[in-house]
Target: ACT domain-containing protein ACR
Amino acid sequence: MGSWAYFDPEYETLSIRINPPQVSVDNSSCKECTLVKVDSMNKPGILLEVVQILTDLDLIITKAYISSDGGWFMDVFHVTDQQGQKISDSRTIDYIEKALGPKGHTSGISKTSPAKKVGVNSMDDYTSVELIGRDRPGLLSEISAVLANLHINVVAAEVWTHNRRIACVLYINDDTTNRVVDDPSRLSAIEEQLKNILCGCGSNDDENVAHTSFKMGSIHVDRRLHQLLFADGDYEGTFLEKEPDCSIKPKVIIERCEEKDYYVVNVKCKDRPKLMFDIVCTLTDMQYVVFHAAISSDGPNASQEYFIRHMDRCTLDMEAEKEKVTKCLEAAIRRRTSEGLSLELRAKDRVGLLSEVTRVLRENGLSVTRAGVTTVGEQAMSVFYVSDASGNPVDAKTIEELRKEIGHTMRLNVKKAPENAKALEARGWAKTSFFFGSLLEKFRA
Model:
């Protein structure tokens, strides 16, 4: 009688333990930036993991060189902090070395993922809610009001809108016990009311495109939002953002590299934080492997080149697949792009705060295009990117009305996104997404 071959469960990580990742954080080789060098055994998804760790620390990747053709993975990243300075904080450097090193997330030995968490508490205290549906003015306010009426506290949230679609990840708990919401009947009631809100336009089509789900445990919020919108097909159709400046529109060109049987993806667009993450995340979720890459920034513009091949070893022979990859990358870049006005608010956390703020925005005729909310201790911090109901810039009179209405209960800071290279250089990178990633203490605990 034959027998099954025996596989040692330790064999999977044997080569990694024999050849552990080598990580170097170099502050001496370059005047303008810190170099992060990673040499490691190659494995599926490793590039995304490395980029994810760096961007979760709110580091800006100004240049990168990637090579993973064969069994080894070699990266060099040029990074700065949000102000364009080298990484000087010893705790951040120590975290990078540990996270990318032999016992970190990229080694394959650690079974925990570098998922973002909320605030300073255990994820056991929160339930995450995922929403996807057709966007409309005031929808976030309606969602917030429903949760407040159900005695649900929103501890943190991130909201993206793109191409008339909205995707949200909300972290919630019970507003009296501050504990996770896990009672099936209560979750069912929440789901029913949220779905009614998402389908509130009365169209039968909305019932097929609205989606609500609950998860216990941590997820990577940015990646999940990309996945929700990608699965929802937000890359299809005509993009609705107004783009008077052609430099804002991303340009994606895909060409064949016959010699190595790669396809070469060239992306040129306006530079911004987390751009590389958004592109690599999308390629990874579309089952493409990056073998080589070169990333650079020239003032306000970014140029990124990726040599890719599908995981099943097929290349992009079909024009339809090339067109889909092009559309998906354009959508991934646009989802996080927020032109115009942003409102930064800080206040003492209280039940119903998000509902109150979004109600005021709605009553003043403002539409939220992207939002992030988080809570640290007793402080609630929020950023809302807003336009008027028609998608036009917000006028000064409306801003003053907002200051009068909410300025006495919370700190309101109004910012306009920098429009050119001089503004970027004068102010450093505008910090457009502290929502989850910049809470560094969660990494250092």
About this structure: The domain at 123-233+338-444 is CATH 3.30.70.260 (Alpha-Beta Plaits).
